[in-house]
Task: structure prediction
Amino acid sequence: MEEIKRVLIALQTSDEHGVALPLDWKPGEKVIVPPPKTVEAMEEREKSSYEMVDFYLAKREL
Result:
């Protein structure tokens, strides 16, 4: 039952904030920001406070 609850919360969070969630995500952990669509968006992202894993993969706290 706990896993069902966790999955429902994860789906609601993803839908509400427009983000992706890593495997076994729990509330309070970082979420994955969608990749940039333009070079300008990528450059802006590099200046942000996101945790950059790669130029297309960034994480942030909600």
Remarks:
- The chain is about 40% helix and 15% strand.
- The CA atoms of residues 19 and 34 lie 6 Å apart.
- Strands lie at 31-33, 51-52, 58-60.
